[in-house]
Amino acid sequence: MARLTGDLEVAEDAVQEACAAALAQWPASGPPANPRAWLIGVARHKALDHVRRESRRAAKEAAAASDGPRQGSLSQARVPEAEADDQLSLIFTCCHPALSLPAQTALTLRAVCGLTTGQIAAGFLVPEPTMGQRLVRAKRKIRQAGIAIRVPGPAELPGRLDAVLRVIYLVFTEGHMTTSGPDLIRGELCEQAIRLARDLNRLLPDQPEAAGLLALLLLTDARRSARVGPDGGLVQLADQDRRQWDAAKISEGRALVEGALAARRPGRYQLQAAIAACHGDAASADETDWPQIVALYNELLRYEPTPVVAANRAAAVAMVDGPEAGLAILTDLAADPAMASWPPLQVAMAELHRRLGQADSALAAYRHALKLGVPAAQQVFIDGRIREILSR
Q1: Residue-range domain boundaries for the chain
Q2: Cβ 2 vs Cβ 14: under 8 Å
Q3: Cβ–Cβ < 8 Å for 89, 148
Q4: Residue closest to 380 by CA, chosen among 198, 234, 270
Q5: In which residue ranges of the chain is pLDDT below 70?
Q6: For residue 50, what is the enclosing H or E element?
Q7: Is 343 left (phi over 0), alpha (psi -120 to 50) or beta?
């Protein structure tokens, strides 16, 4: 519908109306032989109705003629068959350089992954009306700039690849560790991100970062079933039952990252995938090649010198040089008020205080994390740690 109308906002509204019509009609009449074609056909009529209403407004006639879909072409347009690159077309559109990175991410989560405006607002820590306005502006900018809703040609790909990789990664991250709701994991988002990464890797087989991203998602998602305990809380990597890990995903991810690194064009996703492969190869936390992981984090900091990467590196340093060394790094990072307000940093500090037997400091850090706000599944984990310390 976005391709037929040339307007993402009109397409979204028309498809929503078509789905509402289906919910009203199909329970009584049964679904049609080709539900997809039915939905697109009804949505096309809804979009035509919108165009006609707009064209009646004298003040908008000029804009409708230049920016909006033409009634003739829309009414006569062939309903497209399912295309494998439908989602990639949308994601490349959402990741156009004319949009800021936050707008690209938010629009992809809305248009491609189907998250609600409220869920996206929670992830960005902004009020829902604010996020709603951002999404409206982003969709209108796509229309006004005449951005084609398609996978761009070879000459345009390099300028958008980094943004597309980042957005797919963020979609997976939202599924892997949800920012709202009662569940730790949203499996459908993880699977959608993996599917998009597969499509991108097929589209760009000579881009090692595309292969690295797919490898990273597979190696990380392989641990999904072991990450949630019977109480619905988070199970940390060291405590997971590795027999529950998906060996097929680990094998595929390892092969992908080895092939990507062989191209000798390293990047952030290949290095993160190599770190995940080290975990996947280890039979237990104690048997993990922690020095190799620290070395990979050192290299990753060259490509992504962020406090979050430094905090993750600190956990590996703690396994090599002891919890005091890791805690010193985290304490330095916590001097930044923004990092001090990041719940995972407080939890990481609490874990190291706990390993050192510093019960009061551990409790303070766990409680600080709770005050900052964490999703329900992580709250279950933190509450369990607090009870464990108090019981001793």
Answers
A1: 2-76, 83-204, 223-228+240-304, 306-392
A2: no
A3: no
A4: 234
A5: 56-85, 123, 125
A6: helix 35-55
A7: alpha
| Segment 151-155 long-range contacts (CB within 8 Å, at least 24 positions apart) | 151/85, 151/88, 151/89, 151/92, 151/203, 152/92
Provide the residue type at 82 as one letter.
Answer: A
> Could you read off the pLDDT of 181-229 as tens digits, one per residue?
778 898 998 998 999 999 899 988 999 999 999 999 999 999 999 999 9
CB 92 within 8 A of CB 148: no
- Mention every residue, 6+ apart, whose C-beta is less than 8 A from residue 303: 266, 267, 268, 271
Residue type, 327: L
Handedness of CA 265, 267, 273, 278 (dihedral sign): positive
pTM value? 0.80
3-state SS string for 250-309: HHHHHHHHHHHHHCCCCCHHHHHHHHHHHHHHCCCCCCCCHHHHHHHHHHHHHHCCCHHH
pLDDT at 68: 46
Listed residue (290, 324, 327, 292) closest to 311, CA to CA: 327
- Say what the pLDDT of residue 69 is: 44
Query: pLDDT value at position 232?
Result: 85
Class of the CATH domain delimited by 306-392: mainly alpha
Report the amino acid identity of residue 37. A
Q: Beta strands of 169-307 (E only): which ranges?
A: none
Tokens for 29? 């009449």
Q: Which tokens hold the place of 296?
A: 């990979």
pLDDT of residue 109: 83
What percentage of the chain has pLDDT greater than the value 70? 92
